[in-house]
Write a structure and sequence with these properties.
mainly alpha; Nucleotidyltransferase, domain 5; disordered N terminus
């Protein structure tokens, strides 16, 4: 959805190009545009998550990344969308949570991949 107009609060804060941190800050301050933008973003993420749930029949979805630093602003919209549009028998038991690894998620994942590959290499005959 294309949005037009100016963001009054963004202008007052003298914020130039929008990024997730600025949008979350403005939403916390009550900026209606930022709140609706996060709501819409949560809906789109929720629709994507529904596809993953239906495809993999998963029990949990762990969300990470910068916007999850402000998970209380976006997770409710994601959860609502999943419950509203997903196949109920599949989505009613799914937990959608914020990753507890935070900014370390990439490092932990890379380390795990390294050890998997190291085991594979060690198992090969020389």
């Amino acid at each position: 959805m294309r949005r037009t107009g100016h963001l009054k609060l963004m202008q007052e804060l003298k914020i130039g190009e929008l990024n997730a941190i600025d949008i979350c800050t403005a939403a916390k301050m009550g900026d209606s545009f930022s709140i609706s933008l996060l709501e819409e973003t949560g809906e789109y993420l929720g629709l994507g998550i529904i596809n993953l749930i239906h495809l993999f029949n998963t029990e949990a979805v762990i969300m990470g990344g910068g916007v999850m630093n402000e998970s209380e602003l976006i997770l409710p919209s994601i959860r609502r969308t999943v419950q509203k549009h997903g196949i109920q028998s599949m989505v009613e038991r799914v937990k959608i949570e914020k990753s507890c690894l935070g900014s370390y998620a990439c490092v932990v994942g890379a380390t795990g991949l390294f050890f998997c590959k190291a085991d594979e290499l060690a198992a090969q005959p020389h």
